[in-house]
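Q: Could you fold this chain for me?
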Amino acid sequence: MYVQGFVIPVPEGNRDAYLAVAERFDRWLMDHGAAEVMEAWEERVEDGKHTDFRRAVAAEPGEKIVFSWVIWPDRAAADAAEQAMEGDPIFAQMGDMPFDGKRMIFGGFAPILELGR
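A: Sure. Below is the predicted structure, expressed as structure tokens.
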């Protein structure tokens, strides 16, 4: 298993536009081997004393935090999907993103403990 995680600041008024882009992109990920995709909209994100989600992405007033992740069978599947993104016309067709992608943080992770499911 391999997990990619994302934290994205999205203007509150762009929720529906974000969801439309996310649905299209996430379906593409599923079609390219993702096992699960989650998009979670901020409901309670508190300010921390030293750091927090808002500071991590330089969130501005009126922006909400999206916490998202993609679960892949393995890193090879994630890497193959990333390669397939290059040059795929679906991404040009999506147009402008409803958020500032320069402030999105993301990374790939190898699980070290898993409970539940």
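A (continued): The chain has a mean pLDDT of 95.
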